[in-house]
Write a structure and sequence with these properties.
Elements (H helix, E strand, L loop, with lengths): L2 H19 L6 H15 L5 H16 L6 H20 L1
Helix pairs in contact: 1-2, 1-4, 2-3, 3-4
Length: 90
């Protein structure tokens, strides 16, 4: 996978993170956690594949939160599926 393709996936995931963060129907703690996960993906000293693996793990935990709305859970799983394409390639 080309670097540009990986950057495009990260950009799309960032947009989906922003959608969750900006959704006032999502509980505040979920939005805060989503922001932390987004920051972890974008700002890290580790390689992209290591950051992606950590973010996938965090999103898995977030998706199992019983307070997360179903539409947000679907968006989280969409982000995970996008990020898994990066993790598998490396």
């Amino acid at each position: 996978m080309e670097v540009a393709d990986k950057e495009e996936i990260v950009r799309r995931c960032t947009e989906m993170f922003e959608e969750i963060i900006g959704d006032i129907t999502v509980p505040r703690n979920i939005r805060r956690s989503t922001g932390e996960v987004k920051d972890k993906l974008l700002n890290g000293d580790a390689s992209l594949s290591v950051r992606v693996a950590a973010v996938i793990s965090d999103l898995d935990e977030l998706a199992t939160n019983q307070n997360i709305p179903s539409h947000t859970r679907a968006l989280v799983w969409n982000i995970v599926s996008q990020l898994e394409t990066i993790a598998v390639e490396d």
